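Please, structure for the following, as tokens.
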Amino acid sequence: MGDIAENETSFYSNAEDYWREVPPTVDGMLGGYGSISSIDINGSKAFLQKFLGEGEGKTGAGCALDCGAGIGRISKRLLLPLFHTVDLVDVTQEFLDKAKAYLGEEGKRVGHYFCSGLQEFVPESGRYDVIWIQWVIGHLTDDHLVEFLRRCQKALRPNGLIVIKDNVSYEGVVPDEVDSSVCRDLEIVHSLVGRAGLRIVHEEQQVNFPKEIYQVHTLALR
């Protein structure tokens, strides 16, 4: 077991070291693919708007959580325009410091900036209408991802949603030594969601991304 624990520790610490060296810019957040940001945000907005609104079974627009938020790219362009309050959580303090300037005037509606890895983060029970988890599940081990999703479920308001948007591999688990992460295939992601006791309400593939990057899927869970 020692090896696993040691490997797990370095899996997380190597990722923290990687992100500490990344410039706090949109291009930095997107690994040099800053140009896809608008396509990404527009796809996410269309996805989310299927669930938001007034009336029976609709998801409220009170409070959202941006997981692995970085400098707040998603908070600024997707979540703050749609929700009254947004909280950000990221493992890199420098990114959160930058977010305060990057978000500008709208940043006044940020409730909390949490500096934490998601493997340790406990979202407040019953606080969130939407928990948005994008391009970060690859930084969690399988067990930590399952445990985090369970904690997220407890943090939802009535009719709340957890959204995962992330790269999916064609088959199996593909490690990335550069940023100390993994990319899982869709079947594995589905099985981990199931282990967390969540069901998939809706799922889409993001379109119009460059051909050379992984497919990106968005899953709504509750």
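The mean pLDDT is 96. The first strand starts at residue 63 and ends at 67.
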